[in-house]
Design a protein that fits this description.
This is Aldehyde dehydrogenase domain-containing protein. The chain is an alpha/beta fold. The protein has helices spanning about 1-5, 10-25, 65-75, 90-100, 120-125, 140-150, 170-185, 205-215, 225-230, 255-265, 280-290; strands spanning about 35-40, 45-50, 55-60, 80-85, 110-115, 135, 160-165, 195-200, 220-225, 250-255, 270-275, 295.
Amino acid sequence: SLVARMTLKAGKITSLAESIRAIADMEDPISHTLKKTEVAKDLVFEKMYCPLGVLLIIFESRPDALVQIAALAIRSGNGLLLKGGKEAMRSNTILHKVITSVIPDVVGKKLIGLVKSKDEIADLLKLDDVIDLVIPRGSNRLVSQIKAQTKIPVLGHADGICHVYIDKSADMDMAKRIVLDAKVDYPAACNAMETLLVHKDLNKTEGLDDLLMELAKEGVVIYGGPVAHDTLKIPKVDSFHHEYSSMACTLEFVDDVQSAIDHINRYGSAHTDCIITTDKQSADTFLQQVDSAAVFHNASTRFCDGTRFGLGAEVGI
């Protein structure tokens, strides 16, 4: 999964360039008036978009993240300090050089700084008079460590434990396509499916057997929760709170949509979760009660992406 995150093939570079052009073509986000109110005669209250200031963003070993973060910072008028994973340092150095070389002098080459040593982070976290926001992208441990070491506001992004729940009324052909995309398309991504929840009535049905066979054919290793382990005789999972980031996932059977919601809210990471169903009431209940940033009905978790949402790129928050 680490190699998959670090690889920059021609297709990925092309899509990165396209996402930057999409950001460039967007309406300038800064200085927009959101609200203008005359609170008393000749006393006008105006609410506007403005830059946050200087951002320190610590991100994982994924060089394409550097490109997206830098493009968003330039477009939104923010200064930026970048610290990527050491495994991708050479790629990050080259990408940083490419980006800063095309920033006009009127903006300033030093708008984006690249932090190369992990040792520098501790000193930067003391600069609460200079840095306005820290965004750590990575594990819960990293986010907790950063929060404990700084007075600067921290916007934390941690696990991507994404669920797909197949309800008893689901179209199983659709379910197969969605689950395969959510797990197999890019398993190292934080929006890949990690846990598959299935309504108990679908256990041992032809549709589910076909789906599990397809996952196995693609090379996905399936671990079972207590019920799935007993009924399907598959290896038992140690914890439901587990992000594989690889060709593996957890499978468990639940009693109904409410059980699925309760499971997700207890073990999930509030990232992206999906229900596959033809029952509108079940879908509405799921969409309203699952406490996640993105909640989908009949769509792959892989759709949770700044570019796919028409935003050009994302920081992963």
